[in-house]
Amino acid sequence: MVYISSWQEYQEAAEALSEKSPTTTRYCVKWRQSADGAGKLVLKITDNTTCLKFKTHSSVYLNRFDALNLSLMQKMQNRRPTQASIAPSPAPVPTALPQAPAETPAGQPSTPTPSGPAGGGVKKKKPKKKK
After folding, report:
1. Nearest to 11 by CA among 70, 86, 94
2. Torsion of CA 64, 67, 72, 74, to 10 degrees
3. How far is residue 95's CA from residue 107's CA, in Å, rounded to a whole number?
4. What sign results for the dihedral spanned by CA atoms 80, 7, 41, 4?
5. Which residues pair with 44 in a beta bridge?
6. pTM for this predicted structure
7. Confidence class for position 131, pLDDT limits 50, 70, 90
């Protein structure tokens, strides 16, 4: 096991390792909270022959960790980054002709109103009463 001290080196080595053997690569994230309130983040990536580790106590690396995590997950899922995550793209131009909005008898244009639960989730079951 090799602890890499530089974030840039770890990121490059982790991405290279995942590209070299994508089917056998495993990625592990550990967070350990200590009694004094400080935490330790440990990242580990391995392909059963090479094991790379990075550990830090600093919260500065959290944004970098999120970016690496997103990159590795996209590679593991064999997906490319979406346009929304890269840069804002212009809205697509509608190909159909615009329709005139339907008006209500009062002369106001109608707007769709949501129906049903807003969350779209399933209701929680009530527990059975004890006899």
Report:
1. 70
2. 180
3. 28
4. positive
5. 28, 53
6. 0.55
7. confident
